[in-house]
Every structure is written in structure tokens, then in C-alpha cells.
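INTERNAL AUDIT FORM
Audit reference: QA-55
Scope: verify that the stored structure record matches its stored sequence.
Auditor: D.O.
Record contents follow.
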Amino acid sequence: MIEMKDVWKTYNNGIKAINGIDIKIGKSEFVYIVGPSGAGKSTFMRMMYREEVPTSGTIIINGKDVGKMKNKHVPKLRREIGVVFQDFKLLPKLTVYENVAFALEVIEESKASTRKRVMEVLSLVNLKNKARFLPDELSGGEQQRVSIARAIVNNPSILLTDEPTGNLDPETAWGIMDLLDQINNRGTTVIMATHNKDIVNTFRKRVIAIDGGLVTRDEARGEYGYEN
């Protein structure tokens, strides 16, 4: 499903963020991306949904060469990849329903189909009763659940989550992990960049450690392995 072959990324200022990564991630895997700040984790994630393009090497997502992809095909790629950010990135003047529906309206889904799908995902994230709320009327955990609902409303095969529990209290963070586990159990490949040592060591999944732009560790049921 995801393959990187000898991938390098050097920014215009000369900073080398990724230094020759080779990895494969299969269908329905749950993978933690760990490592110290500045190690290259965010660049690694952004290259998968083509926010960044590798300087050299090959990135294959669902059989498509992302680096060689024409710009006009990028929106279609991104419909196959849901992305969840640490700071939610919700549209403040839209309701919960409207924030989630927006992803379907962009691809001109019918109103009936949109309503059905949006209510399905809001039910999954336990926010069906808050469909008419605005983001600032929600707790941080609820806002993150809206962000996750929006990311999966297109039924993506891959869900990328960059520090999804970073701004949340511990109890809320565990709830978000339970939700991500449910999504993964439905067949979605979940890739999660995180600094949360407790979560990684409790929800034991595959761990890919990135340090200095290199994969330094790849373990089937790994531990966090760094001091916070």
C-alpha cells in the first residue's frame, strides 16, 4: 500500500530532512512514527500526501508514484488519504456537520448521500448529537473527533495522523486512541506520528523510529524508546 525506495528530501536552505529511507507499509497496518523533534517525522508524513515532494527516490501510494504525479491528479490522491492534525484545522464558522460535509461537497456528492455518510461518521465518533455545534462550543477532544470524522468521511484507505493527541489531556487522548483503533480494525491503514510514550508502550503496534532523517528502528510490536 505504501512503499518508499531510497527517498531523500533536502530543502532549499540545505537542510537534509530525509536521508535515504526504504520502508513498506501494508494494508490495514497500524504504525507509529517516533523520534526526537526535528528528526524528519513531519516531512516523512507530508511526502505521503504530497505536501512535500522527495528530492530523489520513489514513493508509491496505492500503486501510484507520488513524486512523478501531475498536480491535477493530487486531489484524487488526497481523497484516498485522510489527514488529522494536532491543531484540528476546523473551519470556525461552520458547524460540526458542515465541517465534515465539506469534504464531500468539494467532490460534488449528492445532498442525500452526503447527509447519510456524515451522520454515519459522526455516529462513529460519538458526536451525532452535536452536529449543529460550532467548533468553539466543543472541547479539545471533541474537536479532534470532528477532525477525524472529516478525515474518514471519504472512506480513505490510509489515515495519517500527526500528533493527534498532542494538545489533549491524558484521559481524552486514550479516547482518541480507542477511536483510531476502531478505524484501523475496519481495514484502514493508520500511520501516527507521536511523542506520546505511554500510548506507544500501551497500544503496542509497529514502531518506525526516524532520527536524523533515517529509519533507525522498525519493530513489529515496538516501544517508544526515547525519553520525553
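Auditor finding: record pair retrieved intact. Helices lie at 41-48, 74-79, 96-105, 111-124, 140-152, 170-185, 197-202.
Action required: none
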